Fold this protein.
Amino acid sequence: MAPGQKTAMVFGAGGFIGAHLVRRLKREGYWVRGADWKEPGFSKTEADEFMVGDLSDPDVIRQTFDRPFDELYQLAADMGGAGFVFTGDHDSEIMTTSAGINVNVVKYGIAQGKGPIKKIFYSSSACMYPAYNQEDPNNPKCSEESAYPAAPDSEYGWEKLFSERLYLAAHRNFGTEIRIARFHNIFGPEGTWNSGREKAPAAMCRKVAETPDGGEIEMWGDGKQTRSFLYIDECLEGVSRLMKSGFTGPVNIGSEEMVTINQLAEMVMKIGRKKLSIKHIPGPLGVRGRNSDNRLIKEKLGWAPSTKLEDGLRKTYEWVYAQAKAAGTAK
């Protein structure tokens, strides 16, 4: 570590966003320690140090905080796509693990204002927005001030809301610099694509990649539910700008390019140069409509994402297709 070099800790560095974030921080000249229960699955970490352990375990957290850090990026959570979050089968696990990590960060990283961490970024989620504002697929309401009265559509969302308040309380009580962003469906290469926890863009890329032209893919629901999806590079740019700003948040980091899931599938088919039919089947769906509201990020940071969904999907499909080809499942 060079004298005067900025230092960063990344929790969740073995995950999709975390691995990309470590790479960006290294390009910006940081000395980086990553920590997670596993190392990245699709590329070697670029962190200067990587600690493997359960971050909901206080003993593990204390080991990671053995020295001061300029910045902590807290991305670690027990999470996944609709098949993991909305079935209800993993609710206790999701809440216990994720809340435990964040309680440990405040207890040992902030330590009543005397801890080793100077500034913390916390990745919240659009899942914390009230379900009652997301019943109309054509007109969802996800502006930051609409979070209350609270009514998230999942226990994952409730935990995110709790942890937002936990970090804001630490900011008020101890003066620690906190930055909070609510992510909206981040996607891109090196995200999980066949584990059962993949999100819609990766799942759709996999289905198209593994289905021969003229075949059929399955989709949960009628496909008329709406979402917006943000490419990973734009997500990291938003995080960087928020960390360099004087704004605590919470603020949305997401795209305003809303599409139906049917439209998402058609985009991926176009990229894959395949004509496939869609079989709509019952399955966990989440809210009927969700879209990032970017008015606040434009006001506070003078910026909002601009990458088109199709451009990000093309890069993601190429990567997923290569993975499927290597696994012998591509068609």
